[in-house]
Amino acid sequence: MSRALSFVVFFSILTALSGLTHYYFWVRLVRDMSLPEGWARGLVWVVVAFGLLIPLSLLAMVTLGRASAGPLLSFAYIWMGVCLLMLLSLGFGDLGRGLLHLAQRFFQESAPADPERRVLAARMFGAGAAVATTGLALVATRMGLGPVAIKRLNVSLSRLPQAFDGLRVVQLSDVHVGPNIGKDFVERIVRQVNELKPDLVAITGDLVDGTVSDLAGDVAPLAELRAKHGVFFVTGNHDFYSGADSWCAHLRTLNISVLRNQHVTLKEGEHCLDIAGVDDYSSSSHPEGPAGDVKQACAGRDPSRELILLAHQPRHIRAAEEHQIGLQLSGHTHGGQMWPWNYLVRLGQPLVSGLAQFGKTWLYVSNGTGYWGPPMRLGAPAEITEITLRAEALS
Prior knowledge:
- The chain is of the alpha/beta class and about 400 residues long.
- Helices cover about 45% and strands about 15% of the residues.
């Protein structure tokens, strides 16, 4: 399927979903509430306008570019988050009403419907949903725009030399510098990382949402990252949307090592530890591929040495397990970013958030450092992750 046809299909699906969602809003918040004619007519136009906002902002981004469409995109992203929260509020409300209706029918004899009572119930339901949505939006926005927490964990690796015991890896992931995240945010996380005095910094993809020409100034503070063994970057799917080759070349000028299906060796005296990185799992669908290839990234290395793999998507874990990799660091999922999206993400990824072991390979999936789309998080706080590696004690 050509990229143009893919866009048309995606745009059509997005428009249909937005239309259905906003029709549901109209039914529950306008029609069922039997508002005065003037109010109802005005709200119809408001619902239509907001229903068109999300697909039109996408069209503006494609035709005018991210920079020109930036203000519209920012507003559309906020509304996207509010839509999800409104769907949750109305959906759970409808579920509760449905259960109550069934209970009444089961325990009571049916009575003639009272139109005034039905309208009053609809208005109370609509008002309750609006209040719930507002509260959730405030909480989610505060979590999305608030300080990024430091999350700390220890991981024991069987082949890690004692010389590397206590090595601290600080992971950044899914920063999404772009329309809503700029230089101030990048400067803040760079300060936080440097205060940790890490041995190694790993940036596991989706750093940007925009071109080098648009965002070079915003990512410039990354040049100030300091780590004993260096700063490493692997591509994510959004980096490919933004021009992966150009970004990889630019990041190298900021003293960031880019790993594209390759590995490097860290040394402490005579002891060694390998760090490998792969391109995004879906990169083969972009002109600037190739696909992320764990086998190629491991080629030529000593298999007796411990290896840490940087891979944007958790889905690389099966190949990591096959190649006896000790630890894979990933992102991509945002931890779901806004509940209950995490349950849908789980359908396509082996792990949504946190640490788990697959065979003898550990996988850690970060919630991400920034956010994508709405500046909101609900149930999945942003993080800068400090991972301390431990050598397993000899028996």
